[in-house]
Amino acid sequence: MTWVFLALLTWIVLWLINIQLAKIEANRFINLLVPALFGFSILILWEGFVRGFNVSPILLPPPSAIAVRFSGSLSILWIDFVQTFIKGALSGYVIGCIAAFITAVAVDKSNFLKRGLLPVGNFVAALPIIGMAPILVMWFGFDWHSKAAVVVVMVFFPMLVNTVAGLNAKDNIQHDLMKTYGASYWQNLLKLSLPAAMPFIFNGLKICTTLALIGAIVSEFFGSPTRGMGFRISTEVGRLSLDMVWAEITVAALAGSAFYGLMALIEKGVTFWHPSQRK
Q1: Confidence of residue 182 (pLDDT cuts 50, 70, 90)
Q2: CA distance 64 to 113
Q3: Which of 29, 57, 175, 231 lies in the 20 to 30 Å Cα band around 218?
Q4: Residue 126 and residue 185 in one domain
Q5: Angle at the Cα of 126 (from 120 to 132), degrees rounded to 5?
Q6: Within a domain: 61
Q7: Residue 12's domain spans which residues?
């Protein structure tokens, strides 16, 4: 029980420090330090309770064991990361988001597509990925191409819906003014509709960052070469190597968070004029 007491004491101290830090005027350092301390306190509790109550590593390994396995398996983790994230998730993300953006422009220009495609899109978006993944694996094979196809299906319609909503978010007075100036459809699109749609577009891009990684990992459960995060997780679960499973989960969490943060950083630079980005 000594481990539990020390973990609780450390958690309380860090919690009190975080309360005081939260009262300080926000800046970049404070904004990073507060969640870092909070996450570290969770790891301390995890370590202390697992060791204090002698929890079996088969059920839940301590963070220290996961860190040891992580540092000792960097080569394997890197191979899995390249296979799942770079080849599968990233390629599918780029293809799906670009295709959705082009389709959204066509939908914005055509009332027929707006009335016919969007309801079908909502239906397809509701299809379970567990049911679609094995079909796409059969169509495109066991390598990363099928994983990219699953990601395309997952990100296409969220990106489409957000982009269409953004293109319809332009101010009617500004739209009428552009018509008064004799602006063509493409001038209206480039100078009015797209700038107004940027917050919506980046909202879709940020949502799709997490969907892409989830889709790529889940699709690997249904067929994959002997590498990849999903393959490694399913294999190591069967071998009861939960520390390796948590190491792969850590890689996925770090990659997903970094990808989301990159999109948020680009959004901040592109939509600096939007009220949500102003201090």
Answers
A1: low
A2: 54
A3: 57
A4: yes
A5: 100
A6: no
A7: 2-51
